[in-house]
Amino acid sequence: MDFDLPQDLVDYLKELDDFIEREIKPLQAQDDNERFFDHRREYARTDFENGGLPRPEWEELLAKARKLADDAGHYRYAWPKEMGGKGGSQLAMAVIREHLAAKGLGLFNDLQTEHSIVGNNPFVLMFKEFATNWQYERYADKLLNGQMRTGFGLTEPNHGSDATHMETRAVRETRDGKPGWRIDGAKMWTTGMHVASHCMVFARTSGKDGDAAGITCFIVPKETPGFVIEEYLWTFNMPTDHPRISITNCWVPEDSYWGEIDKGLGLGQSFVHQNRIRQAASSLGAATFCIEESVKYARERKPFGKALSENQAIQWPLIELHTQCEMLRQLIRKTAWEMDKMDHKTIEKTISDKVSMCNYWANRLVCEAADRAMQVHGGIGYSRHKPFEHIYRHHRRYRITEGSEEIQMRKVGAYLFGYLGPRKQMFKDRESQGDQYVQPIPAPR
């Protein structure tokens, strides 16, 4: 086995570092833009008098950084080559996201808004994988030039992790002689709708509650009558761009869907698999940052005449976190490497449990690392003059979003016990042969 990273990827990390030093850091230093990253960051970013939305000047700064990255050929790195990207692999994206997150807070990579000089954009790959030919012809140009920005409307007020019981319904209805769909329901946490042009609205079109089939993904223009942003929900980490949406008597034309009728959950699985492995890599990078900053501080801080780092009470918790990072890194990279060798449907059937392992453990680990960094740094670590509270508040959300850690552990359990995944047939075969799985424990002599 060769665990060395490909040389072209190592070289690209160096190219990104040089780009950050040359282009991004000078922009961050201009016009007191540091206020978005130092102790003033939450206030500087948040328009508290406007529903808690991001301030326009904050989003304008992010747009400038993305433009610099796009002009330099970095932003669309993961996009397919035929769509103007470089076809970056899942492994490469995992390594890049860990690398950038390990640098700490900065304009080069701010995951509170999924902003990065190397864009995530899982919707682009999802579009390529699932769009029909006519859908590609209709939407591709708008998507690639930024005219089409979508929110992801899967979660509902009464239904989070279990999308198969969603209450949003779409029924065929003709209006003014045109065939179409009437959609009624509600969505929650539909991130980014304040700047989106459309929303991907998942709705049941056939079947019964609990069925995986029978759900369709509709592309609904934001200005469609009956599609209403009711409120933006304030969160642990501000600003917010996560609204509650009502959908009432909302009509769209017949062809306003993505992929195939009744097979919409496949799109959702594609989206979460890409996001989960990349979020895991980012959480790993942020955890590494917290550990390294704590080690550096413990070496420099000398209460009672000796360095904090000489105390085992300081060493051992950081040693355990460091050990977990080393092990997790290999699982993330192996899983991303395996994802590169198969299509989306095969990922769901074979290694979805590995993606979940990476994600739930990484998101838990970074919260523990940030908490430990606060403790090592003492009072200043608890303050906003250090980035640890921001890292904790941001990454804490990932233990809930994209599938809570309990739901992801449930997925791992289903694979482990053979209710899903490659082991399912093995357990069926054993049952048919009458195998005894549980052997009695011999009595002590």
Shape call: globular
CATH fold topology of the largest domain = Butyryl-CoA Dehydrogenase, subunit A, domain 3
> Biggest β-sheet, characterized?
4 strands, mixed
Spatial strand arrangement across the major sheet: 5-8-9-12
- Counting DSSP E segments of at least 2 residues, the number of strands comes to 12
Structural class: alpha+beta
What distance separates the N and C termini? 46 Å
Report the helical percentage.
40-55%
CATH class of the largest domain: Mainly Alpha
What is the name of the CATH superfamily of the largest domain?
Butyryl-CoA Dehydrogenase, subunit A, domain 3
CATH architecture of the largest domain: Up-down Bundle
Average residue-wise pLDDT: 91
Number of domains: 2
User: Which regions are unreliable across 5 or more consecutive residues at pLDDT < 50?
Assistant: none
DSSP helix count?
14
CA-atom Rg in angstroms: 24 Å
SSE succession: HHEEHHEEHHEEEEEEEEHHHHHHHH
Write the layout of secondary structure elements.
Elements: H1 7-29, H2 41-45, E1 46-47, E2 53-54, H3 56-71, H4 90-101, E3 109-110, E4 115-116, H5 122-130, H6 133-144, E5 150-153, E6 169-175, E7 178-187, E8 198-204, E9 215-221, E10 227-232, E11 243-253, E12 257-258, H7 265-300, H8 312-339, H9 344-350, H10 352-377, H11 379-382, H12 388-395, H13 405-416, H14 423-432
